[in-house]
């Protein structure tokens, strides 16, 4: 097995009698960003390639350095793929193709590149590289040109050939996304076709790595998935080639790589995993307990020897820790000692989930976390996370001083990863700060900042329904395309920092909360925004005007309000509001129904509807608790819609809000639409 780390060390090891035996190990150097195996086309991949900065190095499995190649790319190499004598390298935005170390093709991506792969040239004769890009697309290239784009349901993080060879015709590619989805797409010559997709209904972590290996020994390659919340999953395929979940193993750290193979014991398949903190572990099919007696477990001599070896290693480590601790205490008491702040890296992720319109904030360290203090200058809700074992306590805040939240998470011993769920309110923007303190001496803390944007619940998409009724906002003025791009980036998430090439830029978004849509089209001196939600247009108008004023840029603003968009948006809100009202009503009835059940000793006299509420009582309570303030949030959106509708007409309708809330308390869609139309 070959493994590379952030200290620049490449190590190859084998396992004999349960012990790892090093084959070779390189000296520390610059951080290694990627490790890939290569070899002749159609042959065994047994040559090891690693990237550090802009450089690629190649090693044989015995440790001989046969290649050192400086790509001269201006970006560090973050992803790489090797196919025969072809080398595909990607930085953050740049793609380069080298053949026999000669620059052959080049492409500049419109958004960040997360991974690269090439269809097998043994079956697909033309070289077809595929880039996994942050803007939810796979970009399929031919030479230095874009052949076409494949939209996928989330930002793709990793790519893998289906069945390790791309399937029968070599054109099938697996992808894993940062919001936890896995899918299979067929890369045709002219257009793609989506074959299947695994949704993330259980809201597991994002997918970091994929592999194909027959771990279930049924003669068909299985799919192995590694996630950033520590889950390792195995899927096999049914008769219609759809994936079926078979096994799950949970680790306490994010899984950075998974590979199936035989490593520890001949004849027994394993899944070898590496974790963010630097652990390498094997999940084996070998039965670990040989025989079970009436009072004791009889283990093999190999296992006994392994346990003895581990105990010896543990004792040596404890002795080393004691020695270092004593040395530190002596140094700390010295009058000339200088306290050095220990440095540590935080592996963090702040991702919007489409399923529940919330943000997941995950913080992971290579050492145990002591506590995390969360502070926000913008109103947010913290949602419950089942996997979170930390104890949370809230401190009193003064919103008038710009402090809306102060929460402390105290972690249990050996917790290296903490996951939080946050829901924001569109139109209110600011910064969340996380103060992360690990269990190290001397005590030190690192501050991480995360921006809550004005339209924080919007997500990039590549489809736009022209049939909907749209409101439009047009801005003209003395601004450059780059300035407008920076203002739009300030308003909306999931946009590249660099201004995309071209004379004009177009982006499409969808609201994860309401399913309304937004189109942004801008170039030098002019920008147009269209949305079926007038509140989205109102937020954009206020924020963009404010940003332009800061830069002393004068804007000419024209807008067109489509009256049909109001009932259309209310119809989109209707099913969500009706469901939440019904859920709240059911939860209110639970205690009364349980009391009746106790007194009457039977539920036969109750209607089927009430009996169903009693039957689902716990599930209803969990769902209601999981979505606090959901109803208030929907009321707030309808109120904003009402105020914004008349704001564009130059009327202040805040005085009519109490009457609107009365209508909502006795909710009926038709009555609500009439109230919007009749208010003057």
Query: In whole angstroms, how far apart are the ends?
Result: 74 Å
Main sheet overview: 6 strands, antiparallel
Helix segment count? Answer: 9
Strand numbers in spatial order across the main sheet = 38-40-41-42-39-43
Record field, number of beta strands? 43
- The helix content is 10-25%
| SS strand fraction | 35-45%
Report the mean per-residue pLDDT as an integer: 88
Assembly category: single chain
Shape: globular
The poorly predicted ranges are none
Helix vs. strand class? alpha+beta
Radius of gyration: 29 Å
List keywords for this structure.
Bardet-Biedl_syndrome_7_prot, six-stranded antiparallel beta sheet, Bardet-Biedl syndrome 7, BBS7_hairpin, 43 strands, WD40_repeat_dom_sf, 680 residues, alpha+beta, five-stranded antiparallel beta sheet, coiled coil
Describe this structure in words.
Residues 458-560 form the BBS7 platform domain. It comes from Dreissena polymorpha. By secondary structure, the protein is α+β, with helices and mostly antiparallel strands. The protein has nine helices and 43 strands. Strands 38-40-41-42-39-43 form a six-stranded antiparallel sheet, covered by helices on one side. It has a five-stranded antiparallel sheet with strand order 33-34-31-36-37, with no helix packed on it. It has a four-stranded antiparallel sheet with strand order 4-5-6-7, with no helix packed on it. It is globular. 31% of the residues are buried.
């Amino acid at each position: 097995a070959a493994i590379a780390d952030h200290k620049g060390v490449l190590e190859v090891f084998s396992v004999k009698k349960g012990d790892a035996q090093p084959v070779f190990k390189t000296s520390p150097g610059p951080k290694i960003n990627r490790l890939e195996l290569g070899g002749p086309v159609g042959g065994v991949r047994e040559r090891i390639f690693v990237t550090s900065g802009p450089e690629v190095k190649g090693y044989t499995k015995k440790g001989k350095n046969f290649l050192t190649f400086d790509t001269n790319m201006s970006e560090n190499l973050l992803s790489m793929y090797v196919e025969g004598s072809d080398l595909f390298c990607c930085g953050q935005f740049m793609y380069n193709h080298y053949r026999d170390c000669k620059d052959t093709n080049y492409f500049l991506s419109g958004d960040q590149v997360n991974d690269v792969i090439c269809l097998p040239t043994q079956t697909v004769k033309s070289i077809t590289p595929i880039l996994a890009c942050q803007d939810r697309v796979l970009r399929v290239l031919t030479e230095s040109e874009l052949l076409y784009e494949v939209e996928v349901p989330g930002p793709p993080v990793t790519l893998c050939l289906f069945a390790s060879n791309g399937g029968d015709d070599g054109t099938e590619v697996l992808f894993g996304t940062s919001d936890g989805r896995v899918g299979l797409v067929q890369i045709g010559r002219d257009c793609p076709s989506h074959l299947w997709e695994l949704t993330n209904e259980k809201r597991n972590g994002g997918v970091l790595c994929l592999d194909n290996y027959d771990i279930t020994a049924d003669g068909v390659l299985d799919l192995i998935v590694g996630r950033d919340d520590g889950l390792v999953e195995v899927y096999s395929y049914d008769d219609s080639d759809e994936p079926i979940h078979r096994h799950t193993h949970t680790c306490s750290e994010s899984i950075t790589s998974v590979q199936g193979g035989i490593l520890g014991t001949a004849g027994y398949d394993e899944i070898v995993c590496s974790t963010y903190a630097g652990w390498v572990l094997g999940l084996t099919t070998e039965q670990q307990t040989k025989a079970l007696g009436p009072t004791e477990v009889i283990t093999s001599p190999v296992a006994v020897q392994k346990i003895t070896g581990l105990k010896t290693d543990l004792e040596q480590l404890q002795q080393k820790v004691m020695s270092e601790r004593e040395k530190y205490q002596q140094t700390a008491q010295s009058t000339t000692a200088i306290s050095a702040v220990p440095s540590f890296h935080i592996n963090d992720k702040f991702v919007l989930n489409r399923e529940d319109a919330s943000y997941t904030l995950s913080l992971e360290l290579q050492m145990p976390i002591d506590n995390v203090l969360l502070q926000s200058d913008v109103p947010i809700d913290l949602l419950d996370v089942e996997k979170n074992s930390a104890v949370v306590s809230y401190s009193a805040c003064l919103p008038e001083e710009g402090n809306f939240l102060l929460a402390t998470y105290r972690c249990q011993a050996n917790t290296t990863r903490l996951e939080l769920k946050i829901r924001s309110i569109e139109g209110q923007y600011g910064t969340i700060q996380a103060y992360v303190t690990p269990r190290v001496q001397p005590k030190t803390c690192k501050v991480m900042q995360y921006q809550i944007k004005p339209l924080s619940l919007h997500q990039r998409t590549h489809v736009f329904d022209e049939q909907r009724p749209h409101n439009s906002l047009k801005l003209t003025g003395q601004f450059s395309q780059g300035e407008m791009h920076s203002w739009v980036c300030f308003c909306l998430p999931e946009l590249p920092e660099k201004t995309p090439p071209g004379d004009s830029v177009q982006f499409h978004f969808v609201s994860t909360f309401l399913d309304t849509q937004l189109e942004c089209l801008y170039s030098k001196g002019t920008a147009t925004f269209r949305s079926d939600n007038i509140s989205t247009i109102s937020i954009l108008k206020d924020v963009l005007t404010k940003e332009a004023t800061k830069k002393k840029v004068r804007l000419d603003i024209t807008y067109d309000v489509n009256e049909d968009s109001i009932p259309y948006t209310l119809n989109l809100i209707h099913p969500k509001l009706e469901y939440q009202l019904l859920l709240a009503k059911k939860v209110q009835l639970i205690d009364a129904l349980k009391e009746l059940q106790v007194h009457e000793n039977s539920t036969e006299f109750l209607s089927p509807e009430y009996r169903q509420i009693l039957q689902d009582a716990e599930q209803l309570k969990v769902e209601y608790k999981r979505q606090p303030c959901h109803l208030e949030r929907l009321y707030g959106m309808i109120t904003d819609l009402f105020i914004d509708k008349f704001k564009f007409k130059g009327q202040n309708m805040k005085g009519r809000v109490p009457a609107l809330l009365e209508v909502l308390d006795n909710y009926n869609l038709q009555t609500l639409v009439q109230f919007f139309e009749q208010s003057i």
